Amino acid sequence: MRHERRLEVAYRVSRFKLLGAVSATMKQETRNLKRPNETGLGLMGSLTVAAGLCVLAAPPLWAGDMACVIKPSAEISIGTPVEGLIHTVPVERGDWVTKGQVIVTLESSLEEATVALAKAKADAEAVLKSSQLKVGFSSRNLERALDLIKNNSIAQHDVDQAQTEKALAEMSYQEASENKRLAKLELNRTMAALNLRTIRSPINGVVMDRLLSPGELARQTPVMKLAQVDPLRVEVYAPLSLLGKLKTGMKADVRPEGKGQPAYQATVVVVNRVVDSASGTFGVRLEIPNANKAIAAGLACTVDFHLSSAEGP
What we know:
- The chain is α+β, with helices and mostly antiparallel strands.
- It has 5 helices and 12 strands.
- Among the domains are: 1-58, no CATH class; 77-106 and 198-226, CATH 2.40.50.100; 110-195.
- Strands 1-8-11-10-9-12 form a 6-stranded antiparallel barrel. The protein has a 4-stranded antiparallel beta sheet with strand order 5-4-2-7, with no helix packed on it.
- The chain starts with a helix and ends in an 8-residue tail after the last strand.
């Protein structure tokens, strides 16, 4: 941001100096007109010099060699969803990380023990199998009772008791099945709590900074910062003469600072419709593919727009 602001200030200062030069020249030539024999410049020469300076002071009409800055497409501060003591940080500043890679782990012995207990409960089968056996036994007992009541060999009370025992056995089986399902849900909950102790990278990128180390307490503060450098974005402030000419989808050549740097093709993705009246510029954002990581983020650059490659009305 400081670099971009310096570009704006430099542009404003250059315009101010050139306009001042125009004003001084016009005043001098006005005095010379009153003394034509003391000067070699006539009226036509004065106007030619003034017109040339006005052209230089005006905003440029070309779309090339404008100053810009290359930035990461995303900068992310990584935090932890729960408080805890940092156990490991397997990456260092400058390391490349991939999406899903483990970058921080918190101390999780309690959560691991809770998961082990919940897993044992979810895997338990004794209560469920016992209730199944009771249902089978009570069903057979009820069938025998119904056969005996036909011959008046037993009392009706015995039949009622057999029916009640079967109903209770079925309820016990249903309760055991529900407890089994609840145990599995509890296992899922404890595993989710354990997974919160492991932080993974949300992007493919590079570690910008590591803010905490093993043994420190992670609270509501970032642990590290990551930057996504594929693709890169290019920020440029364009003069008002290009407002309406630069459109999304347009191609441009971006050349990073440094001797012998090649030009890379970029695509306009954002054209800001809000103009900065102080500098007479508006913001434009471009995107550069950087799959091979050949371009470093943070570099100053120059951009040359291909005005003929604009798409759309």
